[in-house]
Amino acid sequence: MKVALVFGTRPEAIKLFPVIHALRAREDVDTRVIVTAQHRGLLDQVLEIAGIVPDIDLDVMTPNQTLDGLTAKLIVELGQAFDAEKADRVLVHGDTLTTMVASLAAYYRKIPVAHVEAGLRSGDIHHPWPEEVNRRVVACIADMNFAPTQAAADALLAENRDPATIHVTGNTVIDALLATRQRVLGEPRLASGLDGLAARFAGKRIIAVTSHRRENFGGGMEAIARAIADIAARPDIAVIFPVHPNPNVRPVMEAVLGTLPNVAMIEPLDYPHFVRLLDLSHLVLTDSGGVQEEAPSLGKPVLVMRETTERPEGVAAGTARLVGTDRAAIVRSVFALLDDEAAYAAMSRAHNPFGDGHASERIAKIIAASGSARGAMDEAA
Ligand code: UDP
């Protein structure tokens, strides 16, 4: 059977490269990779490290494109790609615009859709925006829902999705993280670009920061920047912040943090370097989805700068805490953790609420089995 995987952003590429490797290891599946390149530079970083060359690259990124302009472009171009590939199944991930539009274009051609990281819900269509609606649209279409956790499966069941379509697999990000960490341990030069910063900040506790959510653009970003400045005023702290290139993020951060000695604002890191940064950190301050899943596996407390999270497992396990985007509240939460050893110890238990590192193998097996079942039915007919 021919499976076309479609994605366009860095987090999708990180979470799908182990699935691509698992599918490519099978002889009964012909795996095709279609990228939209919704995030050009960040996507290419991941593809290169993972050794993946796309079969089709739509290269749709243009400066300041609108959601509706991108949707219009993608639906036409993905439709043409599916017609050219004649895939038996389309596989998408998560909740980006690429994911939602690829599902629709597949549906218009009656191609079945498999959804990896299905069932994440915040319950609020404006947080995260527009991702909450993107993923709900995919759920209406997919006939295979790979839920990372039981909570995600329960969310799908609560929407009356057919239980036969739901498989709890674990999150493939844990596969990516553990495999990459292993690679870096064996080959330290893969992440040696951080050696200089590690030496410069020796003796300080490092806080890794990432921030790029659309719903935090504007006032939220400004408050986050000012909170980081307050935190970095402490002499025992250093902040390492790979800054997302989005024009709503970088100028705000540069204006507030650009000259502070304890803050290193750096270019986005490739995945091996980012995994090393997590390893070097004392705690993580982020509004990212994927980072919330990765940090607990490495025993790093995560403070989440969002109002809601669709990943309650980390909060329930006690390894993540929602701190919102209020400047004073962020600072208070970080200082509480820095100054209370018992609270830190309780949050820093290494824990894998999101998966065991074998999600991709499970997904590949289920997809291949559906191909053989279909083949047997076609023969019988
Ligand atoms: N990440 C990375 N380099 C960086 C920052 C993040 O490789 O400089 C990885 C991180 O490990 C995680 C993913 O990018 O797997 C998260 O992406 P992002 O925060 O952009 O998106 P989200 O997960 O919120 O959709």
Describe the structure in your own words.
The structure is a single chain. The protein is an alpha/beta fold and 381 residues long. The protein has 2 domains: 2-171 and 356-380, Glycogen Phosphorylase B (Rossmann fold); 189-348, Rossmann fold, CATH 3.40.50. It is built from 16 helices and 13 strands. The strands form 2 sheets. It has a 7-stranded parallel β-sheet, with helices on both faces. α1 runs parallel beside α2 (40-50) and α1 crosses α16. The longest helix is centred in the C-terminal third of the chain and has 22 residues, at 359-380. The two termini are 17 Å apart. The model has no long low-confidence stretch (mean pLDDT 95). The site of uridine-5'-diphosphate (UDP) has 16 residues, from α1, α11 and α12.
Shape: globular
* CATH architecture label of the largest domain: 3-Layer(aba) Sandwich
- Indicate the CATH class of the largest domain: Alpha Beta
SSE sequence, one letter per element = EHEHEHEHEHEHEHHEHEHEHEHEHEHHH
Mean pLDDT across all amino acids = 95
* Estimated structural class: alpha/beta
What kind of sheet is the major sheet? 7 strands, parallel
In the sheet with the most strands, the strands line up as 3-2-1-4-5-6-7
Please report the number of helical segments: 16
Rg, Cα atoms, Å: 21 Å
Strand content: 5-15%
* Total number of distinct structural domains: 2
Query: Quick one: CATH superfamily of the largest domain?
Result: Glycogen Phosphorylase B
CATH topology of the largest domain: Rossmann fold
Bound molecules: uridine-5'-diphosphate
Share of residues in helices: 40-55%
Number of separate strands: 13
Distance between the termini: 17 Å
